[in-house]
Design a protein that fits this description.
- InterPro entries: Galactose-bd-like_sf, PITH1-like, PITH_dom, PITH_dom_sf.
- It is built from 4 helices and 8 strands; from the N terminus they run αβαβββαββαββ.
- By secondary structure, the chain is mainly beta.
- The protein has a two-stranded antiparallel sheet. A two-stranded antiparallel sheet has the order 3-6.
- The longest helix is centred in the middle third of the chain and has 6 residues.
- The chain starts with a helix and ends with a strand.
- The N terminus is likely disordered.
Length: 195
Amino acid sequence: MSHHCHDEAHDHDHDHHGHDGHDHSHDRSPDEDLVHGSLLGKIDRDLVVCLNESAPGQGKAILKPWADKMDDTKVLESDADEQLILFIPFTASVRIKSISIRYEPGETAPSKVKAFTNREDVDFDTAESMEPTQEFDLVDDTRGQVIEYVTKYEKEKNHTQSFKQDPIITVYELQANPADHKVPGAVETFGHTLK
């Protein structure tokens, strides 16, 4: 099992002795989840909707801080069949680098997640017929651990494009100043330039 500083917060007092020579603080701040790249603070929780959840509010409840990632009291279960739709709106424009999911292995564990971005019209019919932005095949045996699924955006982030020529630098002037653009060999007479 890997060891992380954020895991230590639950295993020690705050005297910070014996941490393999690294110094850090575990005081909670409003931006604590940003350390883990969490967008939790950018989710418009009042507008989160989950279709097919077995109890009202389950979809909202599973969107939790990193510190609560192992909390088994907040789970999402389908009420009728194996499909769920979770609509998660954000309060600002965001780039989702990965999706972290925790589930117990077994017959009721999810096997696939389809992500649709910038869509408010997704229902069960459109989710089946429409091409998702990205589809994730989930790991079979998670042993109850949080699994991070990296998005296409993050995979392509380091991709660069080669140019066949030097880049061109262009300057656009909203109102050109003729004094900045004198023609060599031209004569200026009464405010006009003659060649």
